[in-house]
Amino acid sequence: MTAVRKQAPRTPPRFVIRIVWMLHRTAYRLTGGRFGLSGPAAGRTFGMLRLATVGRHTGQPRIAIVGYYEDGPNLVTLAMNGWGRSEPAWWLNLQAQPDATVGLVDGPRAVRARAAAGAERERLWARFADFPGWGADIDALAGRRPVDTAVVVLEPCTDGRMVS
Questions:
Q1: Average pLDDT for consecutive 10-residue bins of the chain (164 residues)?
Q2: Taking the model in full, what pTM does it have?
Q3: Are β-strands 74-79 and 61-71 bridged in parallel, bridged antiparallel, or unpaired?
Q4: Where are the alpha helices (DSSP H) in the chain?
């Protein structure tokens, strides 16, 4: 019997990922937000939100568009930077200043970010399989990174403070 060797999942070259992100943000800006955001649909796709953070070094507003799904009132995403080796800048910014604003299809929402841990992280990680698009083998893709991929929970802020 011959052993079947499982091929490691492939991702597009880094420059392709960066160009796609740039084009997505540009399309969002040019259409005044009519293109680029969407809600998640279990079994079909993850949603897309606009995340406004404060730069950890500059103190300037920073914007990223990231995938997410809903877990009750919380929004859940991965700090995976296109499955690249480095942490995404938006996650580093949130670690320094966890208050942020997300833009959703139905409007903005003030949130506070934190990393899920323990049993909560395992439960949330397993749910990513319900929202295709993260990668065919999410565990293998995450295993290629030198650090654990953070499961980021964006909880609604009770004070309503928005980050611009």
A1: 54 66 69 76 92 95 94 96 82 97 95 98 94 81 85 89 62
A2: 0.82
A3: antiparallel
A4: 14-30, 89-96, 118-127, 138-143
